[in-house]
UniProtKB/TrEMBL annotation:
<keyword id="KW-0808">Transferase</keyword>
<dbReference type="InterPro" id="IPR025877">
    <property type="entry name" value="MobA-like_NTP_Trfase"/>
</dbReference>
<protein>
    <submittedName>
        <fullName>NTP transferase domain-containing protein</fullName>
    </submittedName>
</protein>
<dbReference type="Pfam" id="PF12804">
    <property type="entry name" value="NTP_transf_3"/>
</dbReference>
<dbReference type="InterPro" id="IPR029044">
    <property type="entry name" value="Nucleotide-diphossugar_trans"/>
</dbReference>
<dbReference type="GO" id="GO:0016779">
    <property type="term" value="F:nucleotidyltransferase activity"/>
</dbReference>
<feature type="domain" description="MobA-like NTP transferase">
    <location>
        <begin position="8"/>
        <end position="158"/>
    </location>
</feature>
C-alpha cells in the first residue's frame, strides 16, 4: 500500500447527451453506479469532492459546482480544487467505471518526477480526467487560463510535464452505450 496523501476531485456534471441525456454518474454497471465505482477507486483520499449535482452515493463526500453550472470540466476542476489541501490531487471523471484503487496507486507512485501522471485508454488516448496532478501545478495552470469556463482540458494541461501509462481498460470512459460493450 502506497502511503501518499492525496485529495480527489470527481467531475460529474456533464449532461450525458451521447447517452440520450441519461445522467452518466448514475448508470449502473454490475450493480454499482459509475459514480460509486469511481468513488471506490479514491476511497483512500484525504478529502473527496464531487463536482456536480448532489446524488446518492455509497459514502459521504463533499459536493460543489462551478458557478454558473455547465461551464465544462475545467470550470469544474477549478471549483473542485477549492476543497482539500493535500499536495496531490487525483482527478477522475465519473464515466470511468473500470478505474480501481490499484490504478490510482499506480498514478500516485509515478507523480514525484512529473507535474502529473495520467491513464491512457485502450486505444492509447491520453485521459486528462483520469490522472493525478501536483496541486501547485494544476492550480497554476488554471490561473494561467484565466476564466476556466468552456476551456479545454487539453489546453489547461498543455504546459504541464505529464507521464502517461501504457494503454489499459481502466482509462476507458463511457460516452455512448456502445462503449459498455467494449
Amino acid at each position: 500500500m502506497l502511503d501518499v496523501e492525496f485529495d480527489a476531485v470527481v467531475v460529474a456534471g456533464g449532461g450525458g447527451r451521447r447517452l440520450g441525456g441519461v445522467d452518466k454518474a448514475m448508470v449502473v454497471l454490475e450493480g454499482v453506479t459509475f459514480l460509486d465505482r469511481v468513488l471506490r477507486a479514491v476511497a483512500n483520499a484525504q478529502q473527496t469532492v464531487v463536482v456536480g449535482p448532489v446524488r446518492s452515493t455509497y459514502r459521504e463526500v463533499e459536493w460543489t459546482q462551478e458557478d454558473p453550472p455547465g461551464g465544462g470540466p475545467v470550470a469544474g476542476l477549478a471549483a473542485g480544487l477549492q476543497h482539500g489541501q493535500a499536495p496531490t490531487v487525483v482527478v477522475l471523471s465519473c464515466d470511468l467505471p473500470w478505474v480501481t484503487a490499484a490504478d490510482v496507486t499506480r498514478l500516485l507512485s509515478t507523480i514525484d518526477q512529473y507535474d502529473g501522471c495520467g491513464l491512457r485508454d485502450s486505444d492509447g488516448r491520453e485521459q486528462w480526467l483520469a490522472a493525478a496532478y501536483k496541486r501547485t501545478a494544476l492550480t497554476a495552470a488554471i490561473q494561467r487560463l484565466g476564466d476556466p469556463r468552456n476551456q479545454s482540458v487539453r489546453r489547461l494541461t498543455a504546459d504541464l510535464d505529464l507521464f502517461w501509462t501504457e494503454p489499459n481498460h481502466a482509462g476507458d470512459d463511457v460516452d455512448t452505450w456502445a462503449d459498455l460493450d467494449d
